[in-house]
Design goal:
Elements (H helix, E strand, L loop, with lengths): L3 H30 L3 H27 L19 H28 L3 H31 L3 H11 L9
Length: 167
Amino acid sequence: MIAKEMEEALNKQINEELYSAYLYLSMSAWFDSIGLKGFANWMMVQYKEETDHAMRLFNYLSRQGAKIELKAIAEPPKEWKSPLHAMEETLKHEQHITKCINELVDLAEKLKDRATYNMLQWFVDEQVEEEENDRDIIDKLKLVEDSKHGILLVDKELAQRQYKPEI
């Protein structure tokens, strides 16, 4: 049986993951509206992955016999100054999620909840990958600066990303 404190913290993280999905869906719509279909695709894949992350936590709580409580999802921003700004905000958001995951790991350690601690290790690894991906795109956008041709090349690369269900 999972401790009430851990149950509440994991329910809160489900909301964080669903907000992430909502944010990336909004970014996908914005990129699509400015003609950057590759960026829109990349964010759509990100949206789907974040939904998977929420469901990974949902399923874990369900398997533990815990109560699942879904809360309202905050409204995300609708537009950004530039593709670089959007990606910098993406990295900032992922750093926030990393902090949330680390706090969950700390709580699992404090409660000696080995099952939750083990489950969370997947998220720890995932966050390293998430932040690395964002930094790679930011670095490319900084290299091309305001070059429309350069942004289109990055857009073409991001169009290649495909969704692979995680759960």
